[in-house]
Design goal:
Chain lengths: 316, 178
């Protein structure tokens, strides 16, 4: 019985993750088109080319599977799998409703942060396994970036954990029943938002795949299905990061009138849209700027924020 | 203290400029896209547009071409061929009568020199631009086709305007028509 339930949950989450990633890719193309005064995809599927990403996915599935001669085969093949798995594992703790969560872990926040850090392994594996200068440069960059942005990310989340007094994600949602943490933690929210964009390798922190200098970074040598898995996982991660932002700072699934799932999706899509919006607004930063922003700005600020929060919690 | 202040000021400045940038991109996001969905929507070219050449007729419907061959001589691509016959009309006046006028659209570079040089303003560059074809026969336009296309144009204030210009087509900003 437990196994059956687990199977149903797995299928639901996997299905949601895949279809949602397809929708997000379509949305990204639409938003970028409109920001550039274009229409974006219009032809495949009416209205507004809603079938475009489905057509693309089918096309990618049928493409030739290319593995470079000099690649480290095992690493090269394992990297997309690890990437996909780490994205999928994130969905375990995302609370879609008061009871609609795969598993409400007591250490949900810790679990989320740990699994989110896992994707760096797959990027490094992809870069190393490809045996390509651009790939390894992109992978090294994203490793440096993820390691340095993990620190402010965790510090910002730690302040939220301090306020709610629990590491359980459902507990954090419940702790926001009176006031959302974005009100109590405006600085922590901004730090989290910046750090999570860097963590997701999203513009303006998309140095690891800076096409103007690195071809495509760690996925230079990938094509067809393997490449599409990276692409899908990237958008699945974007959704997970946004869902986490909504849960930690905007009260997650809680809200009047709408069902919990509706509220969570609404809040999450707001952050997803914000990430797309920022992508077409802010230019990409340089590597030194990227690391300087993390160590010289985000870390001290989030540390100060943590200190003030701690004082507030103690004095309450 | 000053360094401290600079540090805070730079962060505030960065956040403010990002907000301004977001405002600008949002304005573009909600503005109307400039894309024209080509086969569904069509663009009406300005009257100075150079599409395929066409032969103009006068009010009585007769072609204005006098077969002087100025166009064949100036054509850089040698795309125009004219066949004409020398006839003797009333009073013993000799004149050339146009027999055939062929434009090889595959050779034509749409430069408009033929229309420019024509002393009788018998030739114009029509705005027809969808000239791609799967049948090579459509690449040569004879007298009938050139005259037919030309009948869609009238002389107006020394500008050749297509008949019904500006009606029922998408007229875009900057197309030269007010």
């Amino acid at each position: 019985m437990n196994l059956l339930l687990a199977g149903v949950k797995f299928t639901l989450v996997l299905g949601f993750m895949m279809t949602n990633a397809l929708v997000l890719i379509w949305l990204e193309r639409k938003v970028s088109g409109r920001i550039q005064n274009r229409l974006g995809p219009m032809r495949v599927g009416r209205p507004h080319g809603w079938l475009q990403t489905v057509a693309d996915a089918v096309k990618l599935l049928f493409k030739e599977d290319v593995i470079p001669d000099d690649a480290d085969r095992l690493t090269f093949l394992a990297a997309p799998a690890v990437m996909f798995l780490s994205a999928l594992l994130l969905y375990v703790v995302i609370p879609f409703g008061p009871r609609a969560v795969v598993m409400d872990l007591d250490i949900g926040v810790l679990y989320y942060l740990a699994v989110a850090g896992l994707s760096v392994i797959s990027l490094l594996a992809a870069g190393w396994g490809s045996n390509n200068k651009y790939s390894i440069l992109g992978a090294m960059r994203s490793t440096a970036q993820m390691l340095s942005y993990e620190v402010p990310l965790i510090l910002a989340v730690a302040a939220v954990v301090m306020l709610s007094g629990t590491l359980s994600i459902q507990g954090i949602v419940r702790a926001q029943s009176r006031v959302w943490f974005i009100v109590l933690q405006p600085v922590g929210f901004l730090v989290y938002l910046t750090a999570v964009l860097a963590e997701l390798n999203r513009a303006p922190f998309d140095l690891s795949e800076a096409e103007s200098e690195l071809v495509a970074g760690y996925n230079t040598e990938y094509s067809g299905m393997r490449w599409s898995i990276f692409f899908l996982a990237e958008y699945a991660n974007l959704f997970a990061g946004s869902a986490m932002a909504a849960t930690l700072f905007l009260g997650g699934w809680s809200g009047p009138w709408l069902p919990p799932l509706g509220w969570l999706l609404l809040k999450t899509y707001f952050f997803v849209f914000l990430a797309m919006w920022l992508r077409w607004t802010v230019p990409r930063v340089r590597v030194d700027q990227l690391l300087a922003v993390s160590w010289k700005v985000l870390v001290p600020i989030s540390l100060a924020n943590l200190l003030i929060t701690a004082a507030g919690v103690v004095l309450r | 203290m000053k360094a401290w202040w600079n540090y805070v000021a730079r962060i505030v400045e960065t956040l403010a400029s990002i907000l301004i940038g977001l405002g600008i991109t949002f304005r573009h996001l909600v503005s109307k896209p400039v894309t024209l969905q080509y086969p569904d929507e069509r663009w009406e070219p300005p009257y100075t547009f150079r599409g395929m050449p066409a032969l103009l007729s006068d009010e009585d419907g007769a072609l204005k071409c006098t077969a002087c061959r100025s166009c064949t001589r100036i054509c850089p691509a040698s795309a125009i061929q004219i066949k004409a016959e020398l006839t003797t009309g009333e009073g013993g006046r000799k004149r050339l009568v146009l027999q055939e006028y062929v434009v090889d659209l595959g050779r034509c570079i749409v430069c408009g020199l033929c229309a420019e040089v024509c002393p009788n303003e018998a030739l114009t560059m029509a705005s027809e631009y969808e000239l791609a074809t799967v049948d090579p026969a459509n690449l040569t336009a004879g007298l009938d086709r050139l005259a037919e296309v030309g009948r869609k144009y009238r002389y107006n204030n020394q500008q050749v305007l297509p008949e019904g210009y500006g009606e029922g087509h998408v007229v875009r900003e900057g197309s030269g028509v007010k």
